[in-house]
Design a protein that fits this description.
The structure is a single chain. The chain is an alpha/beta fold. Strand 1 and strand 2 form a beta hairpin. About 45% of the residues are buried. The chain folds into two domains: about 170 residues, Rossmann fold, CATH 3.40.50; about 70 residues, no CATH class. The protein is globular and about 50 Å long. It contains eleven helices and ten strands. Strands 6-7-8-3-9-10 form a six-stranded mixed β-sheet, with helices on both faces. Strands 2-1-4-5 form a four-stranded antiparallel β-sheet, covered by helices on one side.
């Protein structure tokens, strides 16, 4: 098991944000964490990464406890985190952005830059272009590629397709799918239910800091009540379209 979170509780001041969250991510699996805004999804990722302290509970990464570690220690172990609001260095080229990330990671090697670019063909085509001139979706691909150049074993992705055009969503989807051939594990927070159903191996639905449901895509699609209550009535039609 790549990641195992057990009985995780998190507070922000007096606010109890996560209530005994349990989840697992297997080696080479893509696990999706979905739910309404404010459900605790991003907090879960930040706590795993060591950016938010856990009040109680246990987080195991490759059988080693990490819940008391700082973010740089978690990263050194092989966990990469891509928050939803991160941006590349606009004054550097696409390739330079990735090289900077590679130089900062002891896990990268001589082939790391070219391999990271290969996840997203549009970045290969624009390797010499300034990152600041890329579209929002292309910048998001670059941020993901920068995380991948570190050769992590687990990637925490927070809403990578939010606000993007459908064509760019497909490009990011394809890049995520390519990680399967590299044996990477991904914990993906995603509001786009159709995309999540396309790429995910297993699903956790968070609601007000509790795990309201867990199961495969087939099991989730069979629970229209769960989708309607915890994701929104409109998401039922979205899920049914994915079933076809």
């Amino acid at each position: 098991m790549m990641l195992k979170v057990s009985s995780l509780h998190v507070h922000y001041g007096t606010a109890h944000v996560l209530h005994g969250v349990d989840l697992e991510v297997g080696t080479g699996k893509i696990v999706c964490l979905i739910g309404r805004n404010g459900a605790g999804k991003s907090t879960t990722l930040k706590t795993i990464m060591g950016l938010v302290p856990a009040t109680s509970g246990e987080i195991l990464f490759e059988e080693q406890r990490i819940e008391a570690m700082a973010a740089h220690q978690v990263a050194r172990m092989g966990v990469a985190y891509v928050p939803e609001d991160r941006r590349p260095f606009g004054s550097l080229s696409v390739e330079e952005n990735i090289r900077v990330a590679a130089q900062a990671s002891p896990r990268s090697d001589a082939n790391g830059v070219s391999e990271a670019l290969a996840f997203f063909p549009v970045l290969e085509e624009r390797a010499r272009q300034l990152a600041g001139s890329l579209s929002g979706g292309e910048q998001q691909m670059l941020v993901i590629a920068r995380a991948l150049v570190a050769r992590p074993r687990l990637v925490l992705l927070d809403e990578p397709t939010e606000g993007l055009a459908p064509s760019l969503v497909r490009s990011i989807r394809d890049g995520i799918m390519k990680t399967r051939t590299h044996g990477l594990s991904i914990l993906l927070v995603e509001q786009n239910l159709s995309l999540a159903l396309e790429v995910g191996d297993y699903f956790y639905v968070l609601s007000r800091g509790f795990v309201a449901f867990e199961g495969t895509s087939e099991e989730l699609l069979a629970r229209e009540d769960v989708i309607a209550e915890h994701l929104g009535v409109g998401r039922v039609k979205e899920a049914l379209r994915s079933r076809k």
